[in-house]
Design a protein that fits this description.
With 162 residues, the chain is an alpha+beta fold. Helix content is 22%, strand content 35%. The protein has helices at residues 9-19, 37-47, 70-73, 75-84; strands at 2-5, 62-64, 67-68, 89-95, 105-109, 114-124, 127-132, 137-141, 149-161. Helix 1 (9-19) crosses helix 2. 41% of the residues are buried. The mean pLDDT is 97.
């Protein structure tokens, strides 16, 4: 039976603070093969208590460079997993920017595709402050980014088997 629970947002944010400007050696660094941003976001969700979903191809898990789900490291696959997941692991829904909260995810696009994932670590005067890999960042305002489109994913929580 699956049980739902909330993630530990302070733990996610603490992980993001610790690893924003360096790489956790427990995970492969994807900077040289397409970017490390979504890998970093997945690590933050995992640090917040999300369990992995080992469903082949459509799950969300990381064991090694060659044994991982596409959703762990791909912007599009992570979005698809989070908003459609009815099994184990984190799940969420798209929301407008005005409803964004700490621990949520923002993905940036160029009109053709979404290419970057960011973790919201704070909100000040309605402006999200984020953490990210690729252009390593922690606590910088979203307003410093240039992008054509954006989608916001509220992380509702996670599920695990009891």
């Amino acid at each position: 039976m699956l049980i739902e629970y909330t993630l530990d947002i302070p733990a996610e944010i603490a992980y993001a603070r610790k690893w924003a400007y360096k790489r956790n050696p427990a995970y492969y660094n994807f900077d040289s093969i397409g970017g490390d941003c979504t890998n970093f976001i997945s690590q933050c969700l995992y640090a917040g208590g999300a369990v992995m979903n080992y469903t082949k191809d459509t799950g969300w898990y990381y064991n090694s460079l060659n044994d991982r789900a596409p959703a762990w490291t791909s912007v599009e696959f992570l979005h698809r997993f989070l908003v459609n997941n009815s099994g184990a692991g984190p799940f969420g829904k798209e929301i407008p920017l005005t409803e964004i909260r700490k621990g949520d995810i923002i993905q940036l696009g160029n009109g053709e595709r979404f290419y970057h994932s960011l973790l919201v670590v704070d909100i000040k005067n309605g402006i999200p402050f984020i953490a990210a890999h690729m252009n390593n960042a922690y606590g910088i305002p979203l307003t410093l980014y240039t992008f054509e489109e954006m989608r916001c994913i509220h992380i509702i929580g996670a599920r695990k088997y009891s």
